[in-house]
Amino acid sequence: MALFFETVTIVLPIFLVIGLGFLLRHIGLFNDDFTQQTNRLVYLVFLPILLFHKISQANFVSYFNGPLVIGSSLAIASLFIISYAYASLRRYPAPSLGSFSQGSFRGNLAYIGLAICLNAYGDSGLTRASILMGFLVPVLNLFAIIALIWPQRNKDSAAPAHNWRREILLNPLILASFAGISWSYFSLPVPVILKSSLGIVSGLTLPLALLAIGGSFSLQRLKGDLQSAGIASLLKLIGMPVVAALLLTALGVQGTDLGIGILLAGTPAATATYIMAHQMKADAELAGSIVMLSTLASAFSYTLLLVLLRHYGL
Questions:
Q1: Tally of domains within the chain
Q2: pLDDT in the model for residue 256
Q3: Is 249 exposed, middle or buried (0-12, 13-18, 19+ CB in 10 A)?
Q4: Which domain holds residue 9?
Q5: Are 140 and 104 in contact (CB under 8 A)?
């Protein structure tokens, strides 16, 4: 029972903040414009600052784990193959196939994943998760593009891929992560005043991100093919961390790094899956349902994952 309550103290605060964002939206203190601007600020400014701050101040040699990056990337590739094969065998229409597959492997690493790792493993866990995320974001984007474009490759209406090559190359999270990695690797100094300023801004990031998730949460998106959304959510929340655990263990990843790899693998579907599905002419309704359903269910799946991790001493 003590183990369960310890786990609840990790998971519940995060979802209470998300709930606060939903409540503030419901009573009119948040509106669509505020939520969209907050999301934009977090994505373009606050998260890149957080990632640069945490990674640049870390000892890269101590925190970087090559097998963790490789195993986590292989888990993403595995879930892409599994979900794409399943949807193909079930003869999903091309737009639905892409949305189903993307929602089964592309997780909300930046908003929920980092917050969970911080609560579970403290500041060291946040730094390790930030470095790992810097390598995984390009992998996630690449497979998301393949999942959305390949089923519609013979259609003239399919979105051009070159826009998303630019999206990967200019992604602010990728740029900030690799800037931080370079800073850490070469042990470059950060002036004290700048370091303090970055620390203040970094402290705003995760609360704002969680409030933005709550503010943008809408049960109205839970519509359409809920059975497919449920299967995709199950693959994302349970299938992917199980695959990640097997791969990472086989590669010799242990301790905190193993726990972080599993927790990031178990993140709910990212809001970006809905945005990309809409812009690339896939099934945006299914994508939105996967995001909402997996986010709701992740409160329970994370509790289960953390109970298991703590049981095994991770």
A1: 1
A2: 92
A3: middle
A4: 2-311
A5: no
Q: CA torsion sign, 281 to 223 to 292 to 44?
A: positive
Q: Is-contact 171 276, C-beta < 8 A?
A: no
pLDDT in tens, 69-86: 999 999 999 999 999 999
Paired residues of 107 in beta bridges? 269
Which range among 101-115, 160-174, 201-215 has the greatest average pLDDT?
101-115
Cα separation of 136 and 267, whole Å?
13
For the entire predicted model, the pTM comes to: 0.86
Q: Tokens at residue 223, please?
A: 């519509």
Tens of pLDDT, residues 245-297: 999 999 999 999 999 999 999 999 887 777 777 667 777 788 888 888 888 89
Here the CATH number for the domain that contains residue 256 is: 1.20.1530
Cα separations (Å) of 305 from 42, 78, 122? 27, 20, 17
When pLDDT is cut at 50, 70 and 90, the band that residue 163 belongs to is: low
Dist. CA 293–CA 283, nearest whole Å: 16
DSSP codes of every residue in the chain: -HHHHHHHHHHHHHHHHHHHHHHHHHTTSS-HHHHHHHHHHIIIIIHHHHHHHHHHTS-HHHH--HHHHHHHHHHHHHHHHHHHHHHHHTT--HHHHHHHHHHHH-B-IIIIIHHHHHHHHHHHHHHHHHHHHHHHHHHHHHHHHHHHHGGGTT-TTSPPSHHHHHHHHT-HHHHHHHHHHHHHHTT----HHHHHHHHHHHHHHHHHHHHHHHHH--GGG--S-HHHHHHHHHIIIIIHHHHHHHHHHHTT--HHHHHHHHHHHTPPBPHHHHHHHHHTTS-HHHHHHHHHHHHHHHHHHHHHHHHHHHHTT-
Tokens 């946040």 -> residue: 126
Q: What's the burial of 139, exposed, middle or buried (CB within 10 Å: 0-12/13-18/19+)? A: buried
